[in-house]
Each structure stands twice: as structure tokens, then as C-alpha cells.
């Protein structure tokens, strides 16, 4: 899933009250020296990892990527790391017991998005260092920011702490999957393995290393994310003998049904006449309204991201129903959607062609908000279509997961705030990412754990050509690789301290 | 437009009553000898014409094709032939006055459908002679059957009559267009030229040479054709600032309208919930029901074309509403349609992609029956959408024309019947082609002329790779090139005789 981090929402400091300061990281100078000494080796490690792309959709380097991930964990000091088979791509489970009171969960992805080298300015698997104007030196490669760069920085952090002769302030439980880019299709199987589940259950929460720093050095705390479920509706010769097997001459529509019309009729029932309000039976039953605190955070963020700039970035002149900006943002963060990603039927070239299509497909996606679940949404869709007699409309769910939500006063989030306060990093809080990540695996009923993203580093181009991760920053307010590593070091100590405060 | 001739409807003799026999063509032996002597030159002429493809959609050989057509007419004995400019591709107008009592109109097309040489077994512009199993020797090339083969055979017929020292039994008025394959976009301009209109107005009707012989040698008489209008509906950033200019991240659908939903909502209003009955306001106002004679012809044709065979050919198991076969055929010939040719929006590759499309397009087409007109249909569509507030749905009409209809007792049709009776050619009559050709240009209110297709020859693959036209037939019941030429010779005499009978 894309859109993990909205670049738009990270800008400046939000007023926040009564965050206790955290202590200075012990032996910080020494650890920083170790990080500096290991800089070249760390950068080389990122480059080597980029050279081995795992792409689940293409079955590329799937066992090889898992074995590589296993070795990375062992090299970083995890005492055990094992490959967990699934019905799809295998995952990796690793633990590092430092004898600490607090256990922290970690979620990694070792797969990357597809890429077309022809669209890149440098070879996507070479991890070249390229100067970015006004930013510094960045490594360019597929997976640089999504997610190998931040993950490599995290591994470098725990290596540096240990190499400095210290034990980690927290125990670690790592789960790494190789199917994040195909909607984490089998990740629930990994977490259901008793050994994995029991290890995670001891943690105070799970986080994924990320690159959340804006151009000005500001950070964003996100308190959850919408869920996303992708599915396709198909009608045609393959679903009913009412329709032809292939495109045939269009004159036959006078006596033969057209699957494109049937698809239109089915789609039409899924949203209201306004063209956006979901109309699936019972859709809003479990949708929780925004809290006053969430509304306040949204209003504050609106001030940080001028409306005109947002409209220009998105290429639109108006929001849904011509709503004012803050209303549109409340909608953005709070409303579950039924979106058409694509339509494909019959002739799609220039002008027209006299065919009756043999097949019509709509690609759709739900975005779900608390307390909706994936199973609920899919069941409601199927019941909705069945009730209206659309037996010839085939529903294929290709992946997805429910929403996740983490309390603002959880240890994971308190540690982020405390760290930003101490270091004077400007930050904003968004109540929910309108994009999606599979935090629900940790967040959902099985484990009920906080799940968040953290990383004071910078990069861009996820899912696009010339993906990059900043290595040497030319702006003191923005972290390069070594500073990003130190932010993870500080975060681990902050988590340990905040966890102690909860006791 | 495609589907000019339905291969399914030509099978065997329909009982027909009291057709007076026509006389033997005078000097037939001598003319046939001339045709035989000119065989190689005629086949070479067809091959040369195939080598110069005019493709209006690609602006390929548009003036060159018109000049070539002009020269073909002059070479065939037309006393004058001139190029008629239009706002699109030029047409050709030619006349041959033989001092006869009767004038016959001719409609030619000199353009051909696009082609991809990679899909062909022999180069599409070389006109190679290839053996077709069980049929004989055929010329393969783009335009071979649609329509250069039949047209070359017709020109050969009038050359042979003249070369045999005879005057043609009818005067000829030829109009040839170069935009048939793009729905005759400017052909009405040609017929509106006073000189052309006045010349055509003197004719007893207009016919287009065609290859209408079935595998068993049977012929089909068609008494008209549906009209066809192609149009596209587009919604997106280009039609309203409610929609993004390009595909953007799908999470934004929570606050930004999706043009694909809007398109679905507009489309949904165009047909009833059954997915096929047109629901455009006033759509059926001018639709004439089938006559008893038309129903009888349909029932007879149903017997000639077994239902199981038709279903297999079309790849379907059922007709609309599970109707019985004859009912479905009545629908086929009598009902105007609103067809979706294609849908195209957003992501159309494998699986899903989290985008909100910047553009959504539906390609549609009307098929019209008497007494509907193109202008009526387009006006009603626009009024229908406007009434429902779809101002952001852009309608582009890319071409089309209304239906045509020719009386069974017109000279053109009587001459066909009389000829088939005399020669013992089995034939069937279909009341209307469910496909389309621009006969309405002649048939409509301006000229009110009968308009039909005629040609006792065989070919196939129109609009497809390996298009062919039979040159040497291995079956005595099926015409090769020379026999096709003689059928045109006989037809001209039959037309003259039948016209005399009308006086």
C-alpha cells in the first residue's frame, strides 16, 4: 500500500502540553562515535540490500530476500532469527533479549515495489550517491526510502549501541514480511504462529522504521491509519453465458447482454447519487465519529498546510460538495471510501470501435476507518450485491486489511513526543493517515498493541522512479544517515524511559 | 462501419412468389469472352489498387487515393470524373451517359481499414494469390473484399460490355468516398453538391458492389440497415475542476470526486435496470414496429440459421431476457440500441493500484432503426444528460448516420430477385441488416432513393488480418472473379429490364 506518510502534514510545532522531558541517552558521545566509524559499512550495507530486490508480485528473490533478512537480523545482534513460511512469501521472525524490563516490537518489510529501469536516471539496483539540490547527498535505488534505508539505519543503531559495550535498553521482537507491496496478503499467518504471537504479546507496541522528516526538519506523529481493501468486479463470458466469451460485433447488443452495462448497474448501487457517499447496506454501522481532540488536531494541521497549496498539489479546484477546507480534511481523515481505481472493458484505443465487450472489469478499493474490519466490509459488499441479484458479478478480493489506531498516551507515542520536545524538533500530530499500512495486524483484536511509525530521516520517491534516501544532509535541521541512526538510538532509550514511567 | 453483410443470413432459397423472369443478357457469350481475355489485367488492377491504401484515420494517401479513384473511373469509361473536396477526405463524382432510359447510382468507398502487417500471413499490400482450402485461389490484401475486390469486378463488367462493342444498358452516376471506415463523416457534404445531387436524383437507386455469396453459393438480399452513431462520454480534470488533472493517490477520494463514479452515474441513466433497454428520454418515439412481412422474413431466416450454430458462433448460451430464438431475431432487426463499446479509466493493468483516476471515458454507440435519425438521437442524448445535471460529462460524437430502408418492390431489389430466379441462385431476404452502412445518404429525405448492396462474389476477413477475395473458385456454385464480373453485367441488364417494367 502506498501513502504511508503524507508529506503534506509535516510542518511545524503543534502546541502540546505537559510532556515530561526524557533523559540524555547514556554514553551518547561514544555511541555517536561508533556510528560515525561504521558509516561507510552501513552505507555499503544499504547499497548491498538494494541490489537484491524482492518483489512478491513477480516472485522475484522471495526465498533469497527472506534469507538475506534473516542474516541482517543475526548480524545486528538478534540472538535468533528464523524464516516463517506462509502460503505466500516467507516472513522472518527474530528476537533480541537484552535482559531489559521492556520489550519493543518491530515491523520490517523486505520487499520493494516494481520498477522500470528505463524511467530512472541511475540504475535502480546500484544505489548510487547523487547530489540533491538544496538537500545533500542521497542514495538512489529501489527501496531506498520504502523501506530499506530507515530499516538499515535502525539496524545500525542497535549495532552501535552494542559495539559501544552497552546492552540495549529494550528487548526486541522483529517480524519482517516480504509481501507488504501486495497488501500483506499472508501476514496474518505469521502473527498467528504461537511463538511469534507470544513474543509480540510481551511488547509495549510495534513500530516500523520510516523516513518522516519534512524538508524543514519537522516531524509528524500519526496516530493510526485507514485500512485498505482492494478488490475487482468482473462481468463477462467467464461469469455467465449471457455474455460472449470475447468481444463480438456490436450489432449483437440488440439480442445479447453487454457485460459493461451490467457492471455499470452493479457499480451504481455502491455509492449514492452524489457520486461518493458509500451506499453498501450497513456500511456506516461501525464507523466512529471523530473525537474533539481529533478535530482539534485536524484544524491545527489545516493551518500548517495552506489550502491553495494542497489544491495545487492535487490538481483540483474544489473539494467534494464544495466543502470548506477544514470540513474536507475532517472528511479526509474520518470517512471510509469506496473508490474506483480503474475501469476496463472492450475497446479502449482512440475513437470508437463497434464491439460488444466479452468482459468488463472495475478495480475498486475500500478505505476503512475504526471500528470497521476487512471481513465486515467484504461481507457487506457481497451481501449487498447478492441481495440485488448480481450473481453474475464476480468479486475478487486481492488484498487488504482493516484500520489501525494507537492511543496518543501509549508508550510508543509518548516516547516520540518526549524526544522531539527534548531535541526541539518541530512536530505535528495527525489523528490518522488517510493512506494505509497493515498496523492492524498488531493493533487488532489478537494482540491489541499500539502500532506506529518512527524515524527522523528523509527520503522520497516511494513507488516512483529515482527513489532516494538522504545520506549526507546539507541542512543542519534535517538528518543524514548517521543522525537518523542516532535518532533511533535516542528513541530506544526514550521508549525504555517512558515504559518505566507507565509502570 | 463494420457488419455490412452478415454471413449468417445467407443460406438457402426462400419461397418467393411471382417474380417475372428476366431475359438473357444480349451478347453474353461475347462479353464473357472479353471478361476472360481481360482476366489477368483485372486481377493486376485489383492488386495495384490494394498497394495504395487510403486510411482516413491516419490521413494516409487521402489525396492520392482520390486521384487514383478518379483515374479508375475514367479508365472504365466514365466520361467525366471529378474530385469533390469536403471538410475531410475528398470524394470522387463521375458519370457515364450511355444514352439509356435508366440511370443507376453507384456508391464506392476507396478507403480501407487500418492493418498491422505483423498479424498477417502475407504482406497486406502485396495482394498475393493464396490457396484457400476447399474454396480456391484468393487474393489476400487489405481492402480485398472491403471493398476494392467487388468494386474492381464492377468496373471490369462495364469495361467488358463496352469492349464488346455495346453501350451500357443504363447510365451510371458514381459517388466514391474515402471516409467510409471513419463513419462517413463528411459524405453528406458530397451529396449536397448540386451537380452531384441532381445527377443522383435521376437514378432509380444506388447500390454498392459487395461480396454477398455464402460458402454454398447462396445469396442474401438486404432491404436496409440500421444506422450507427459513435460517441464518447468523458469526465475528468479536463471537464471540471472537481476532478484531478491526473491520476492521484486514492486516499484522496475521501475529499475529492472520482470521475469514474460520475461516469457510472451518467451511464446508469442511459439504459433501464435490465441492462439493455434504452432509457434516454423519448428514445422510442419514432421507432417503427416490424411489419408482418418483415416478421415472416425473420421467421424464415431463423429456419436457415440454426439457433445452436448462431449461439456457438457468437460464444453465448442465451439471448437477452432468455427469449426464444425468433423473438431474439425480431429484436436483433427491430430494436435500436445504446451499446458500451469500451470503458477506460485509471489503472487497467493486473490486480489493483491505489489511484483516483484523473479521467474516465466510455465509448458508446447507438444503432438506429427507421424512422429515427442521427440528429434526433444525438439531441435526445444531450437533452437527457443536461436535464439530469451532467454538465461535467462531455459528449463527443465521432461519426455516424441514420438507418436506411429500401422497398422490396423497388427496381434495385426486383432486379436482384429476377436474376437469382433466372440463374437458380438460392437466396434469402433479410428485412434489415443489424450492422450499418451509410445508405441513408441516398435513402434519406434529400434524395429518397432505394439503396442496396449487390454482388455475387465471395470474400472475407473485412477489418481483420488476411482479408481475402475469391479469384478462382473450386466450387461451381460459387463465383470466382470472372463470374463475379459477369454477375454485374447480368445485373445491369436486369436493372434496365426491371426499370422498363416499372414504366
TrEMBL record, chains A, B:
GO biological process: proteolysis
Keyword Metal-binding: yes
UniProt KW keywords: Hydrolase, Metal-binding, Protease, Signal
A GO MF term: peptidase activity
Keyword Lyase: no
Domain of life of the organism encoding this protein: Bacteria
InterPro entries linked to this entry: Cyt/Met_Dipeptidase, Peptidase_M20, Peptidase_M20_dimer
Signal peptide residue numbers: 1-23
Peptidase M20 dimerisation domain segment(s): 246-389
PANTHER family xref list: BETA-ALA-HIS DIPEPTIDASE, CARNOSINE DIPEPTIDASE 2, ISOFORM A
Protein name in UniProt: Twin-arginine translocation pathway signal protein
Protein source organism: Croceicoccus marinus
Amino acid at each position: 500500500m502506498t501513502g504511508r506518510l503524507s508529506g503534506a502534514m509535516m510542518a511545524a510545532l503543534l502546541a502540546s502540553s505537559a510532556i515530561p522531558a526524557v533523559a540524555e541517552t547514556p554514553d551518547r558521545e561514544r555511541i555517536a562515535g561508533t556510528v560515525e566509524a561504521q558509516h561507510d559499512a552501513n552505507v555499503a550495507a544499504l547499497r548491498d540490500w538494494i541490489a537484491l530486490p524482492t518483489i512478491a508480485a513477480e516472485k522475484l528473490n522471495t526465498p533469497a530476500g527472506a534469507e538475506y533478512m534473516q542474516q541482517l537480523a543475526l548480524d545486528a545482534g538478534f540472538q535468533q532469527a528464523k524464516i516463517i513460511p506462509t502460503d505466500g512469501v516467507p516472513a522472518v521472525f527474530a528476537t533480541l533479549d537484552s535482559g531489559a524490563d521492556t520489550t519493543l516490537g518491530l515491523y520490517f518489510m523486505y520487499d520493494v515495489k516494481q520498477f522500470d529501469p528505463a524511467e530512472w536516471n541511475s540504475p535502480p539496483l546500484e544505489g548510487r550517491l547523487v547530489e540533491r539540490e538544496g538537500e545533500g547527498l542521497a542514495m538512489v535505488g529501489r527501496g531506498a526510502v520504502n523501506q530499506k534505508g530507515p530499516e538499515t539505519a535502525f539496524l545500525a543503531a542497535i549495532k552501535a549501541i552494542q559495539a559501544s559495550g552497552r546492552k540495549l535498553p529494550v528487548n526486541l521482537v522483529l517480524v519482517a514480511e516480504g509481501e507488504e507491496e501486495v497488501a500483506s496478503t499472508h501476514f496474518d499467518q505469521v502473527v498467528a504462529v504461537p511463538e511469534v504471537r507470544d513474543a509480540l504479546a510481551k511488547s509495549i507496541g510495534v513500530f516500523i522504521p520510516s523516513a518522516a522528516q519534512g524538508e524543514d526538519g519537522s516531524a509528524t506523529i500519526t496516530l493510526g491509519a485507514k485500512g485498505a481493501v482492494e478488490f475487482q468486479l468482473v462481468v463477462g463470458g467467464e461469469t455467465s453465458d449471457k455474455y460472449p466469451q470475447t468481444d463480438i460485433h456490436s450489432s449483437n447488443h440488440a439480442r445479447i447482454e453487454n457485460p459493461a452495462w451490467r457492471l455499470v448497474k452493479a457499480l451504481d448501487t455502491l455509492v449514492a447519487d452524489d457520486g461518493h457517499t458509500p451506499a453498501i447496506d450497513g456500511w456506516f454501522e461501525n464507523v466512529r465519529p471523530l473525537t474533539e481532540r481529533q478535530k482539534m488536531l485536524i484544524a491545527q494541521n489545516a493551518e500548517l498546510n495552506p489550502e491553495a497549496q494542497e489544491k495545487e498539489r492535487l490538481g483540483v479546484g474544489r473539494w467534494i460538495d464544495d466543502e470548506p477546507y477544514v470540513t474536507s480534511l475532517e472528511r479526509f481523515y474520518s470517512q471510509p471510501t469506496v473508490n474506483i481505481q480503474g475501469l476496463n472493458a472492450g475497446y479502449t484505443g482512440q475513437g470508437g470501435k463497434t464491439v460488444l465487450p466479452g468482459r468488463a472489469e472495475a478495480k475498486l478499493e475500500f478505505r476503512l476507518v475504526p471500528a470497521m474490519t476487512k471481513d465486515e466490509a467484504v461481507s457487506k459488499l457481497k451481501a449487498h450485491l447478492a441481495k440485488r441479484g448480481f450473481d453474475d458479478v464476480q468479486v475478487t478480493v486481492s488484498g487488504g486489511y482493516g484500520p489501525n489506531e494507537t492511543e496518543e498516551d501509549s508508550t510508543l507515542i509518548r516516547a516520540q513526543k518526549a524526544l522531539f520536545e527534548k531535541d526541539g524538533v518541530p512536530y505535528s500530530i495527525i489523528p490518522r493517515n488517510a493512506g494505509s499500512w497493515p498496523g492492524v495486524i498488531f493493533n487488532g483484536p489478537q494482540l491489541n498493541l499500539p502500532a506506529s511509525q518512527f524515524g527522523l530521516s528523509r527520503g522520497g520517491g516511494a513507488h516512483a522512479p529515482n527513489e532516494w534516501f538522504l545520506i549526507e544532509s546539507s541542512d543542519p535541521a534535517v538528518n543524514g544517515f548517521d543522525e537518523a541512526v542516532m535518532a533511533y538510538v535516542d528513541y530506544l532509550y526514550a521508549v525504555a524511559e517512558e515504559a518505566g514511567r507507565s509502570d
